[in-house]
Write a structure and sequence with these properties.
The complex is a heterodimer of chains A (about 100) and B (about 600). Chain A is mainly alpha-helical. Helices cover about 55% and strands about 0% of the residues of chain A. Chain A has one domain: ACP-like (Non-ribosomal Peptide Synthetase Peptidyl Carrier Protein, Chain A), CATH 1.10.1200.10. Chain A is built from five helices and no strands. Chain A is globular. Chain B has a domain of about 250 residues. In chain B, about 40% of the residues lie in helices and about 15% in strands. In chain B, strands 1, 2, 7, 8, 9, 10, 18 and 19 form an eight-stranded mixed sheet that branches. In chain B, strands 16-12-15-14-13-4-5-20 form an eight-stranded mixed sheet, with no helix packed on it. A two-stranded antiparallel ribbon of chain B has the order 3-6. The chains are: A mainly alpha (about 100), B alpha/beta (about 600).
Chain lengths: ~100, ~600
């Protein structure tokens, strides 16, 4: 997946899930300030990103993501980790 | 007297019951009369393989079988549903199910293997198994005990007699206990050697669909393919087989269309073509049918020292796998009474209360499981139904069992039963709403707003209700939690009305209101008793039109959870107006200002 494809997928997730106008989403948009998302939205984003990555994200690293662009980088790294077969973080999600 | 308990039938109910009696009264003299002899065939012995939380708690925690079940059967990945277009590709059908393996365990049981192993355990525990002999009749006595005649001419006399004869229903027929069920469905099922996994029906290049299932354990769920008036189950067994079943409401599908292997294949080709194509070259290891399988009972447990357990008492419907739950309830309630009796402490009022709570839960679940065929292909409505049904199930029925309310005295049992009655009233309203919502949809199926509805979605009221089952609470805390959850449930159903109104829009709102009647403040609906009225607060008028962030801040927790799980339909009119239309439809006179644009956003 190219960076551009990842970006487009993320814009789709954000606009579908959070009633955002796709044109209002820019790479430099900050998730929590400019796009006005909160921590529960973040949980839902990272659950949906599994469709792209096929991995459980590391919650510590996920917390550091601030902008759309950083989210793209995060997904790229997850994809690379999946490619290498890195073990998933040992985190039990609450059911 | 020869025996404290004579159990008529040694299937899953009779065997687990014997273990439970001997757990609570180790000195009890227990005889189990069972027609068949070991070894029972694996894989193709009996249907009823999927267990849910309540039965799993009984088998695992109470009977101490957790290690055995983990080693010899499969841990189940919850219930998973595929709704939408049953003739379309599976990966395009909306999926409703657990996004992560549930923490509260449940199991997929190979019934032949399980019953072989349980027979050995029952003997070890000290019961006498009379194998290879059938019960020919039961003569209920008074103080002299009950007489059970066996086909070899013997008569066993027991202080208690427990009918575990399954669908033979010896006592039920003798005492005319059967109550007709509102569910009118039939089933056919068969086993396939090897695995039939949902992923086998989806091309490898549908990466997003495959990757969503991170641990590749969708196949460990009980998978349901849902269509109008029917559903198909796929259940993996530890012996390597897959159980496949067709369950159809008679008002939508005649059993004659799928009651033979070739007909079932043709029926699947018409309704579930992807599954039919996958099964084409696989042979059916067995094939059974059960027409019009559902029945209830007037009574299951008597102070005169008899009881009917498992399917000798009732069988509602296989959806949600509650057969094992009602088996567990009847086993535990009966065993408790027997243990009390053998200690000389039997309180007839406790027996009546336990019978009453069993019948109430039966009535509640049969309301949930009947007349719902129109809902299945509408992902939005099915998702809403599953959220409510699971909340209702975990919050009252499961909590009552897990927190051992049923071991309390008669007054406590009554207090909890009265609370259960309120859950039932709310469920009546909820089911009426869900049925009306689905029936008013124009399209044959709808996909809803989410590719995947988390059931339960993490960090929601629903996931917490599930996790709470693993926490022990004292009696007062249990009651307080159930009461608080009932209020959350009332909000939940009120929110579902908002979802239904926005989804159906202006054209259907009045008719939805007419069908709900008193539940939204109007006249009684045309059919039967009132449910519980819904709380329709200012979220319906003031909050709903706000921009997302402000709306979320004004929302209750459950309102947000439902929007996260189900998504949100944009109504064609503001929600307040849709509600007004619904209330006019229900016969409410709307006095103060007529619905107008000026209210929006105020």
């Amino acid at each position: 997946m190219t960076r551009e494809e990842i970006y487009q997928s993320i814009v789709e997730i954000l606009s579908d899930s959070f009633e955002l106008d796709p044109d209002s989403i820019k790479p430099e948009s900050t998730l929590y300030e400019e796009l006005d998302l909160d921590s529960i939205d973040a949980v839902d984003i990272f659950v949906q990103l599994r469709d792209l990555t096929g991995r459980r994200p590391d919650p510590e690293r996920a917390k550091e993501v601030r902008t759309v662009d950083e989210l793209v980088t995060f997904v790229e790294e997850e994809l690379a980790a999946a490619e290498r077969g890195d073990p998933e973080p040992d985190v039990q999600m609450p059911t | 007297m020869e025996w404290d308990v004579v159990v008529c039938g040694g299937g899953l109910a009779g065997l687990t019951f014997a273990l439970e009696v001997l757990r609570s009264a180790p000195e009890a003299r227990v005889a189990v009369v069972e027609r068949t002899r070991r070894p029972l065939p694996e894989a193709c012995h009996k249907v009823g393989e999927s267990s849910v939380e309540l039965a799993s708690h009984f088998f695992g925690e109470r009977l101490g079988l957790t290690d055995y079940l983990s080693e010899s059967h499969l841990h189940k990945n919850g219930l998973r549903f595929f709704s939408g277009d049953s003739r379309g590709p599976l990966h395009e059908r909306p999926e409703i199910g657990p996004p992560e393996f549930p923490l509260v365990p449940s199991y997929q049981l190979d019934r032949g293997r399980l019953e072989n192993d349980l027979r050995a355990r029952v003997e070890q525990a000290g019961a006498t198994l009379v194998e290879g002999h059938a019960v020919t009749s039961i003569a209920l006595g008074d103080r002299g005990g009950h007489q059970v005649s066996v086909d070899d001419g013997r008569t066993l006399v027991g202080r208690w007699v427990v009918d575990a004869s399954g669908r033979k229903r010896i006592l039920s027929k003798q005492l005319d206990l059967r109550l007709p069920s509102p569910a009118r469905s039939s089933a056919a099922w068969f086993r396939i050697a090897g695995r039939v996994r949902p992923r086998d029906l989806v091309p490898d290049d549908e990466r997003a669909w495959h990757q969503r299932d991170i641990a590749d354990d969708r196949w460990l769920s009980t998978n349901h393919l849902m269509g109008r008036g029917y559903w198909v189950w796929l259940i993996p067994l530890s012996t390597g087989f897959t159980s496949v079943g067709i369950v159809a409401d008679q008002t939508h599908h005649a059993i004659a269309d799928f009651n033979k292997p070739e007909r079932a294949r043709a029926w699947l080709a018409a309704h579930e073509p992807e599954l039919a194509a996958h099964l084409e070259d696989l042979s059916f290891e067995d094939f059974r049918t059960m027409p019009d399988y559902s029945y209830l009972t007037r009574q299951a447990l008597s102070p005169d020292r008899w009881a009917c357990i498992g399917e000798a008492a009732s069988f509602i419907d296989p959806l949600y796998s509650l057969g094992g739950d009602f088996l567990s309830l009847s086993c535990c309630y009966t065993a408790r009474c027997i243990a009390d009796d053998l200690r000389g402490e039997l309180d007839p009022e406790v027996v009546r209360e336990l019978d009453a709570i069993y019948l109430l839960l039966l009535q509640d679940s049969s309301r949930t499981l009947s007349r719902n065929g129109a809902i299945f292909p509408h992902a939005q409505v099915l998702g809403a139904k599953l959220w409510w049904d699971f909340f209702n199930y975990w919050s009252f029925m499961c909590a009552h069992f897990f927190q051992e309310v049923w071991l309390q005295d008669a007054a406590t049992l009554k207090r909890f039963r009265e609370l259960g009655q309120r859950y039932y009233d709310l469920n009546t309203t909820a089911q009426r709403l869900l049925e009306a919502w689905a029936e008013l949809e124009d399209e044959p199926f709808t996909n809803g707003h989410k590719k995947m509805v988390g059931l339960p979605l993490p960090r929601t009221v629903l996931s917490e209700a599930h996790q709470a089952l693993g926490e022990r609470l004292d009696l007062d805390a249990t009651y307080a939690k159930m009461e608080a959850d009932l209020e959350v449930g009332r909000e939940l159903v009120g929110e579902l009305l908002a979802h239904a109104l926005r989804d159906l829009g202006e054209a259907k709102a009045a008719e939805l209101g007419r069908r709900l009647g008193a539940a939204i403040g109007g006249r009684e609906p045309e059919e039967r008793q009132a449910g519980m009225p819904l709380v329709l607060g200012e979220r319906f008028t003031r909050v709903d039109p706000l921009p997302r962030r402000e709306r979320l801040e004004a929302y209750s927790r459950i309102a947000r959870d439902l929007e996260r799980a189900l998504g949100r339909a944009e109504g064609d009119r503001p929600l307040g107006e849709l509600l007004d239309r619904a209330r006019v439809g229900a016969g409410v006179r709307i006095s103060s200002p007529a619905p107008s644009e000026s209210r929006v956003g105020a």
